[in-house]
Amino acid sequence: MRARTTAALTAAAAVTVLATAGPALADATPTPSASASAGGDTTVTTAGTSFLTATTIRPGQHAELAASTGDYLYWSFAAAAGQTDHVTVDITLPPAADRHGEATWTVEVFDGLRRRQACAAGAQTVTADTGDQSVALDCTLRQIRSWAEPWSGDPLPGTYYLRVSATDLPEQDLGLAVRAQVRLTAKNGDGQPDGASLKEPLSPAVNAGATVAPDTAVSAAPSAAASAPKPVAQAKGWFASLSTRWLWTAAGGVLAALAGVGGYTLTRHPRRWFS
């Protein structure tokens, strides 16, 4: 009887130990899904239909989803000063037998104020023929500035919006299934604009002082009254170079005086002239 009791207690203790160690062993073993997500950024499978519903993506992240021809696909991303963003878009087109003509696809980038940003490089708009199976678009934005003038329109740090759409296609092709793949990459750099540092003064120093030796006696500077020109010298300076301008000025003064006297005489005593 005592042996049976001892065996039962031993079995119960073993069950308790296994039950306690089971969760610990389960927690120590990583799941395949967790390791896959930790290895890199997850793929975005959605897109917004307007600026307000744009799906957020990060640089280095991949977006892939199925859509319909004619839809506007929106994504948003954050850009910091000194960053140069590059967007690559691959559109898998419907079968050629289902299409009725050429289709023009475009990728556009807008800043937080909904201002369209120009692409510095890349094929932003591509027209696909009826037999094409896919379209490749790419856009390299200008470098994000740390500051800019309000009128310049330069890209500043903040949120940017990416829009992919078909701008010109036959009406019969609206609604056909397509597949879009978007890749966003960013390159960091210096956020200061070109020419932000001043290498030399814009206006050179006028009458710059000279450096003298420590043991050299410095003479007193002349006062302003002593350095001012004398009245006679100033008058000589005025008439130092007589030119035709002075002659025309004097002649004009004489003629003006004669015209004034004649006008006064004519208006004061009109009967002498017209009687």
Secondary-structure element order, as H and E?
HHEEEEEEEEEEEHHHH
Number of strands: 11
Tell me the β content. Answer: 25-35%
Helix content bin: 25-40%
* Rounded average pLDDT: 77
Molecular structure report:
A hairpin with a 5-residue loop joins strand 5 and strand 6. It is built from six helices and eleven strands. The model is unreliable at 5-9 and 13-40 (pLDDT under 50). The N and C termini lie far apart (169 Å). Among the domains are: 55-188, Jelly Rolls (Sandwich), CATH 2.60.120; 230-270. It is 27% helix and 27% strand. The strands form two sheets. Strands 1, 3, 5, 6, 8 and 10 form a six-stranded mixed beta sheet that branches. The protein has helices at residues 2-28, 32-38, 224-227, 231-238, 244-268, 271-274; strands at residues 55-56, 62-68, 73-79, 83-92, 103-110, 116-117, 119-121, 125-128, 134-141, 158-168, 177-188. With 275 residues, it is of the alpha+beta class. The chain is elongated, with a radius of gyration of 43 Å.
Question: What order do the helices and strands come in, and which of them pair?
Answer:
Layout (H helix, E strand, L loop, with lengths): L1 H27 L3 H7 L16 E2 L5 E7 L4 E7 L3 E10 L10 E8 L5 E2 L1 E3 L3 E4 L5 E8 L16 E11 L8 E12 L35 H4 L3 H8 L5 H25 L2 H4 L1
Parallel strand pairs: 1-3
Antiparallel strand pairs: 2-11, 3-10, 4-9, 4-11, 5-6, 5-8, 5-10, 7-9
